[in-house]
Write a structure and sequence with these properties.
The structure holds two protein chains of two kinds.
Chain A: H1 7-34, H2 40-67, E1 70-71, E2 75-76, H3 99-117, H4 127-150, H5 154-158, H6 166-184, H7 200-219, H8 227-255, H9 260-274, H10 283-306, H11 315-333, H12 352-382, H13 389-394, H14 396-401
Antiparallel strand pairs in A: 1-2
Chain B: H1 2-18, H2 25-37
The chains are: A mainly alpha, B mainly alpha.
Chain lengths: 408, 38
């Protein structure tokens, strides 16, 4: 393995970090279009604020907790607190890029993950509660799970495959979103009045920018600028497209019209599902993963609505279910023909990998659900989770930020 | 795998051909009435 810095790899990784950075404000617009106009600024602010907050948290203590020298398979040591020792030379995770480049690429993952959860508690969470929740959740949920899978922790040692974050990013955020929706309760007017998206065009633009940034997310996770990155790029695009087509088709057959918002949500579901698999599966498998994402995520959202769970922007259905499907699909479709450093999945004659993937999925679900519940309950006691009903009716833009999105 | 991938795409194309193609006239007129009332 080369130990000198590769200009090509470094350029690709830094570019990928920038692409992933764009995903968080893009998510703000994706979510912002889906809420009512009185809450659009507050919703976009969730993503923008997290970009700032976790950027600082990550360099101070987040990176060392996630990627610092392993402590018992559970957490990273504090050796790299405030990035001490994380410099321009390659680190232990990537031999051809500066350690700082690897660190900042991972930072963007840490940023977007808690931002995904905000869609579940949109339109009703107190801003102060959101700030405290994000900081605690990043520290006690994201950082440990990232360590388990990518930082030399127990799931990585077990052999769990997660190329770009199916368990670390999407299951943790999706399950936490469901818990948050249940703990916070339904929005005022839920089921009695329409809580319609105020700007579908903003949502489609956000989804498109997410898709664009996702090339950095998945293809960048190859770390090197070579064939593996190219494969991840191609399967990412294919799965997103297939899931969008599938979701739109299912909604067309189910509700009588090809939904534009459905196509946008379907693309995101496909991107989520291919994320853990993108470095291990071929193009044909990515079509089937996209197909499954469109069907499973759409069905999960219908079920959530039937159970009257107010996961406002369908985070659990898209990220929780999409991430779990992607992680399981990795255990089915993975092949060393794509990535010689990985392992075969079920269809290539290694059924044990499917079991390992199931363990990773189960552990991520249980840990993130329990920790999120505890964090939310603590915040409810000390800060209060929800805004008062009068402020919710007025809208969070005015009540929390004293600003308005539109002067028209 | 390749056959399954092909087949799933073909199923989608067939579904588009079979899916309803008439616009929802009632909903459209109801929306325009709502706008007038507003």
């Amino acid at each position: 393995m080369p130990t000198t810095i590769s200009a090509g790899d470094t350029a690709w990784l830094l570019m990928s970090a920038a692409l992933v950075m764009l995903m968080t404000p893009a998510l703000g617009f994706f979510y912002g279009g889906l809420v009512r106009r009185k809450n659009v600024l507050a919703t976009i602010m969730h993503s923008f604020f997290i970009l700032c907050l976790i950027s600082v948290q990550w360099v101070l203590w987040g990176y060392t907790l996630a990627f610092g020298p392993d402590k018992g398979g559970l957490i990273g040591g504090l050796d790299w607190l405030t990035l001490k020792g994380v410099g321009q030379e390659p680190g232990p995770y990537a031999a051809t890029v500066p350690h700082q480049a690897f660190m900042v690429f991972q930072m963007m993952f840490a940023v977007i993950t808690p931002a995904l959860i905000t869609g579940a508690f949109a339109e009703r969470k107190r801003f102060k509660a959101f700030v405290v929740f994000t900081l605690l959740w990043a520290t006690f949920v994201y950082d440990p799970v990232a360590h388990w899978v990518w930082g030399g922790g127990w799931l990585g040692q077990l052999g769990a495959l997660d190329f770009a974050g199916g368990t670390v990013v999407h299951i943790t955020s999706g399950v936490s979103a469901l818990v948050a929706a249940l703990v916070l309760g339904r929005r005022v007017g839920y089921g009695r009045e329409p809580l319609e998206p105020h700007d579908a065009t903003m949502t489609v633009l956000g989804a498109s920018l997410l898709w664009f940034g996702w090339f950095g997310f998945n293809a960048g996770s190859a770390i090197t600028a070579g064939g593996l990155a190219a494969n991840a790029f191609v399967v990412t695009n294919t799965a997103a497209a297939m899931a969008a087509l599938t979701w739109m088709t299912v909604s067309w057959l189910h509700k009588g019209a090809p939904s534009v918002l459905g196509a946008a949500a379907g693309a995101v579901a496909g991107l989520v599902a291919i994320t853990p698999a993108s470095g291990y599966v071929d193009v044909s498998s990515s079509i089937l993963i996209g197909l499954g994402a469109g069907i499973f995520c759409y069905t999960a959202i219908q079920l959530t609505k039937r159970l009257r769970v107010d996961d406002a922007l369908d985070v659990f259905g898209v990220h929780g279910v999409g991430g779990a499907w992607g992680a399981i699909a990795t255990g089915i479709f993975a092949t060393v023909a794509v990535n010689g450093a990985a392992k075969d999945g079920l269809l290539a004659g290694n059924p044990g990998q499917l079991g390992i993937q199931a363990i990773a999925v189960g552990a991520s679900i249980v840990y993130s659900a329990v920790m999120t519940f505890v964090i939310l309950k603590l915040i409810d006691v000390f800060v209060g989770l929800r805004v008062p009903e009068s402020e919710e009716v007025l809208g969070l833009d005015a009540s929390q930020h004293r600003e308005a999105a539109y002067q028209i | 795998m390749e056959i399954l991938a092909f087949a799933s795409f073909v199923v989608l194309v067939i579904a588009w051909l079979l899916a309803p193609s008439r616009g929802n006239v009632i909903a459209v007129s109801r929306k325009s009435e709502d706008r007038k009332a507003a």
